[in-house]
Every structure is written in C-alpha cells, then in structure tokens.
C-alpha cells in the first residue's frame, strides 16, 4: 500500500522550520517493513504544490497526517482533501493523543493514532491488508473521483483492529472504539532510523535560528537522541514522549549522525530532544564519541532548552570540542518565586546565570527562551524576566507567550481559577510565538502582558550593541525580508495598555 505522510501548515508563526522527525520515524518504520512511503510537508511544499494537487497528480491509498494542537484544524482540512481522493485517512501526533475522540468523530477521519506510533503504523498496515472490506470500499470511491466521499471507513473487527494498542477506530456498525494505550518504546535503539533521505532538505535551509549566520546552501538535519523528560514544568505538553526519559545508546546515535554527515551531506545538525543533558555522563560520552569518530567538523546546536541545572564547565567544553555551535536554555522567568511555585521548573535564577557563564566561557553561542504571562505573573515578575534577558545577553532571545495546551497543569489551573480568552477556543489560536495573550488570571490583564512582551523585544533587540551585531553580520541583507516581517509583529506592536 502506498502511503503519504503529511504535515499541514497553520497560520501559527514559527521562527524556523525543520524536518518533521515524527513523520521521518514513521516513514523509517514503514520502509523497514517494505512499504512504499513519501513525505509531504506543507511548511516547505505548499507554495509549490498543495496537498490536493499532489494527490490529484499522484494518488495514495493511505494518507497519514500529523498535528500538534494549533495545527489540528488544518489536519482536518487535509484529511478531507485526502478522502476526496479516495485515501484512507489516519491522524496522529500530540493533539490526537490528547483529544482522540474529537477527531475520530469527524467523517473525513478514518483512524486516530495516540502516542508513539512506529509500531502502531505497521500494525495498521497489516490490518488493512487483512480487512477485505477496505479494498472494496476504496475501489468504489476512487471510481467516483468527483464525489465528496466523506463517509468514514468502517473496519471489520475480525481483521484484528481491536488488538492495535493506541488506536481509535469505527467498527462495521459505526461504533467508535478507543483501544488501550500503547506503552512507551523502551528500546529506542530498536526503532529504525528516521527516513531523513525522504525530506526535500534543500528547502529547509537558511532558517533561523538553526542556520542563521551560516552558508545559505546549508543542509540542516535534526536528530533525536533521547525521548521524554521527568520534569513537570506546568506549561509543558508532553503527550507523546512522556515523563520517562529514554536515551539511545551512544553507538546508535553516532551511526545515525555518521549517515547524516557522510551520506546525506549534512552541514549542520539540530538536536531536538526534550532534555538532551538529563544524563550528564551520557551527554559527555556522546560529545567524546563525536570527537573520536571525527564527526565534529559539522556544527550542531541544541535546538530546545538544555536544562541549566544538569550542566558543568566540562560538559560545555566537550560540546564545543565536539562541534557544538550554540546551546539553547529554557530560562522561562527571572523571578525565583515564579520558577519555584508556578512554573515548577526545578531551577533557580542563579543556576541559569551559572550555566550561561560556563557556556560563554566555552565560547558557545547562547540562546534563551523566556515566557511572559504565566498564571500568577505580575508586571514586576515580567520586568524581572526582561532584566534577566538583558543581563544574560544571549545571542538569541526568544520571548514567548504563555499558552495553555490541554493536558498541562497550567490548563487545569486555568480551568479552575482563570479565564481562557474566547479566541483560544479555536485550537489554531493557541501558540507560544504569537503576540496575543491567551488568558486572564487574577489582576493581570492581557494588555499588560502584551505590552511587556513587545517591550522585551524592543529593549533586547533595539540596543545599539545588538543593532551593530546585526548590521555587521554577513547574511543580514539576504535575510532582510525576514527581519522586516519579524520587526513588524514583534518590535513595533505597542500592546496598548489599559489605564490602571
Ligand atoms: C522539534 C519540535 C518542533 C520543531 C519541528 C516541528 C515539526 N514539524 O516536527 C518546530 C520548532 C518547527 C516546532 C514548532 C512548533 N511546536 Co514543537 N516541538 C518539537 C519537539 C521538541 C520535538 C518533536 C519531535 O521531533 N518529537 C519526536 C517524534 C518522534 O515525535 P512526534 O513528532 O510527536 O511523532 C510521533 C507521534 O506523535 C506519532 N505521530 C506523529 N504524527 C503522526 C501522524 C500519523 C498519521 C500517525 C499515525 C502518528 C503520528 O508518531 C511519531 C513517531 O512515534 C516537541 C516536543 C516533543 N518531544 O514531542 C515539540 C512540540 C511537538 N511542539 C509543540 C508546539 C506547541 C509547537 C508550536 C505550536 C509552537 C508555536 N509556534 O506556538 C509550533 C507548531 C508549528 C508547526 N508547524 O508544527 C508542542 C505541542 C503541544 C501540543 N499539545 O500540541 C510540543 C509537544 C512541545 C511541548 N512540550 O509543549 N516544534
Ligand atoms: S519544559 Fe523541558 S524540562 Fe520542563 S517538562 Fe518540558 S521538556 Fe522537561
């Protein structure tokens, strides 16, 4: 069966685009079992050929679509497009894991997959091959290409659909079943490598912050060396990788890294683990292995925040020697009370300062993530966050809006004690990189949050030293349109303040 794995694009602003590792892993699992599979990523393909055009030109029997919460509405649209072309539609990813029932009720959605799915997708393919009704229905639909064909597929329980863990489906009577959850994969080395070679990698280049300052023809790949995180930050949504940290062996990671560098021509690599440095000893071993295997000439960065309290000078020195160019840190807030009681980050402001000192001493570029508008924030705590950003002075500061994702402790707090603004009832509006506050809590109003968020951008990026740094950078003029767009939404918005 030919399968197309798709990521739909939303209007959610994104500072960067990189390959979709979830789809890469699913494609790797399918290829390992001999199935034919392709990947379509709206982020880099929609402007050339829409999903509808692609399916009209090149039909697939199965279309699998991925969605975090802000993209689920786009995923439903993509499923409708795929169904019109006669495909069996499968939705999976973070939002589907949190709210499977919402999507399986839609007539254009045939199957919903919850959780990690490398094994689930293979079991689905086997069941599709066993279920005689499926082929019959498909034939009938594809012979009527102009019909809406939005009726959902019904599956024969005798084909074993009820045994597939983590699957939501409809039986022949149309009754919806949510099979039990699948447990997390505990042997990550046993999972086939993601199908990196299926991505149109040349379209993922020149993207901030992975590649800025490097050559425009960069081939920027990403890699996941571990999954899960045991910390319980109240805003963090971890429906897929979960609370149990699972690391791949150093040998297994090196084998994939070598493939990226030596066969696929990677010129930069981003590590996208939830928490890359939870096991500090393993992180150091990995760096040493990159050096020993002579893979340290290709620059890499930790895309997501390293945890500041699991670091030391030796780790950063080794990272530098291993080719690391830039480290990201989840700073989140400049107020210790907020960090401890609201964000529950398991770190203090002094730990943040120490990690930045060590990283800078190792001559690594730094990147910080800062959140504005958490429940319990005050104007003073947000001011402390801005002050900390100025003091730490990372090469890149990402100022994010607190966004309540379902399933997080923050979501529960807001349900009980806050008020989520009505625009958030539309999933596509929940985003951390937007300039809109998402909820009211206590005395803090949205105007103040938005004001402090815009003000942080201005105070950080409009300092003379910063402007000078941007002007002298080689790629500034190439990236000029990006700067103009970014400045429009981040620096110029004044975030009108309510009179006190
Ligand atoms: C790398 C990353 C990014 C990258 C790349 C995103 C991408 N295209 O993959 C960038 C920086 C672009 C990004 C952007 C955003 N991200 Co992000 N991102 C991550 C991160 C850190 C790792 C993703 C990853 O590689 N996971 C590992 C792979 C193996 O897992 P996976 O992708 O989930 O796929 C598995 C399953 O979900 C399932 N599956 C996935 N898709 C499908 C489809 C089918 C058909 C099936 C059957 C199964 C299936 O099978 C896969 C294999 O097991 C996760 C955190 C995390 N650990 O998941 C956050 C995370 C997914 N991101 C999140 C968010 C909020 C965003 C943004 C909305 C932020 C914003 N701008 O406001 C945007 C969304 C924009 C977009 N277009 O996607 C949230 C999602 C929360 C939620 N409830 O949806 C997460 C969970 C972070 C968090 N802890 O809060 N992100
Ligand atoms: S924000 Fe980072 S440290 Fe906190 S729970 Fe999520 S992945 Fe773990």
Describe the structure.
The structure is a single chain. Strand 1 (2-7), helix 1 and strand 2 form a beta-alpha-beta unit. The protein contains 18 helices and 17 strands. The strands form four sheets. A seven-stranded mixed sheet has the order 2-1-3-4-5-6-7, with helices on both faces. 37% of the residues lie in helices and 16% in strands. Helix 9 packs parallel to helix 10 (280-292) and helix 10 packs parallel to helix 11. Residues 136-148, 206-211 and 494-500 have low confidence and may be disordered. It folds into two domains: 3-178, Cobalamin-binding domain (Rossmann fold), CATH 3.40.50.280; 205-490, tm_1862 like domain (pyruvate-formate lyase- activating enzyme). The chain has helices spanning 21-32, 42-45, 51-57, 72-84, 94-98, 100-104, 118-130, 132-142, 250-263, 280-292, 313-321, 336-343, 349-361, 379-392, 409-417, 446-461, 464-472, 480-491; strands at 2-7, 36-41, 62-66, 88-92, 111-113, 167-170, 176-178, 220-223, 226-227, 246-247, 268-271, 300-306, 324-332, 365-372, 396-401, 419-420, 439-440. It is α/β, with parallel strands linked by helices and 500 residues long. The site of iron/sulfur cluster has 10 residues, from loops.
């Amino acid at each position: 069966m030919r399968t197309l794995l798709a990521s739909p694009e939303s209007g959610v602003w994104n500072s960067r685009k990189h390959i979709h590792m979830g789809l890469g892993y699913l494609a790797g699992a399918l290829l390992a079992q001999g199935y034919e599979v392709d990947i379509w990523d709206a982020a880099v393909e929609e402007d050339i050929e829409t999903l509808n055009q692609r399916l009209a030109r090149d039909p697939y029997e199965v279309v699998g679509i991925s969605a975090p919460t802000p993209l689920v509405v786009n995923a439903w649209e993509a499923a409708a497009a795929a169904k019109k072309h006669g495909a069996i539609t499968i939705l999976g990813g973070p939002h589907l894991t949190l709210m499977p029932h919402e999507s399986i009720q839609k007539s254009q959605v045939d199957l919903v997959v919850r959780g990690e799915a490398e094994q689930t997708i293979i079991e689905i393919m086997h069941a599709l091959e066993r279920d005689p009704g499926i082929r019959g229905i498909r034939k009938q639909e594809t012979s009527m290409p102009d019909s809406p064909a939005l009726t959902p597929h019904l599956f024969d329980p005798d084909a074993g659909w009820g045994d597939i863990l983590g699957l939501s489906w409809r039986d022949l009577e149309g009754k919806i079943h949510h099979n039990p959850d699948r447990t997390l994969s505990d042997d990550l080395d046993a999972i086939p490598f993601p199908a990196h070679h299926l991505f149109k990698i040349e379209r993922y280049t020149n993207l901030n912050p992975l590649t800025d300052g490097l050559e425009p023809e960069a081939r920027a790949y990403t890699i996941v060396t571990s999954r899960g995180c045991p910390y319980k930050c109240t805003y963090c949504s971890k429906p897929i990788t979960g609370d149990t940290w699972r690391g791949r062996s150093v040998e297994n990671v090196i084998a994939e890294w070598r493939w990226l560098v030596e066969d696929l021509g990677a010129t930069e690599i981003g590590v996208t683990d939830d928490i890359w440095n939870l096991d500090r000893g393993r992180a150091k071993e990995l760096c040493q292995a990159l050096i020993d295997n002579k893979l340290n000439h290709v620059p890499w960065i930790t895309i997501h925040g390293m945890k500041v309290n699991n670091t030391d000078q030796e780790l950063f020195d080794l990272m530098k020697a291993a080719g690391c160019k830039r480290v990201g840190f989840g700073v989140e807030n400049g107020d210790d009370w907020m960090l401890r009681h609201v964000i529950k980050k398991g770190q203090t402001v002094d730990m943040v300062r120490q990690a930045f000192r060590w990283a800078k001493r190792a001559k690594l570029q730094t990147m910080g993530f800062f959140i504005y508008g958490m429940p319990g924030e005050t104007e003073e705590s947000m001011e402390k966050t801005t002050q900390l950003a100025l003091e730490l002075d990372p090469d890149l500061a990402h100022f994010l809006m607190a966004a309540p994702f379902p399933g997080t402790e923050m979501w529960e707090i807001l349900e009980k004690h806050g008020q989520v603004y009505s625009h958030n009832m539309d999933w596509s509006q929940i985003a951390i990189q937007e300039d809109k506050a998402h909820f009211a809590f206590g005395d803090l109003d949205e105007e103040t949050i938005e004001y402090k968020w815009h003000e942080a951008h201005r105070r950080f990026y409009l300092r003379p030293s910063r402007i000078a740094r941007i002007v002298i950078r080689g790629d500034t003029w190439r990236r000029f349109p990006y700067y103009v767009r970014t400045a429009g939404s981040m620096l110029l918005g004044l975030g009108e303040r309510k009179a006190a």
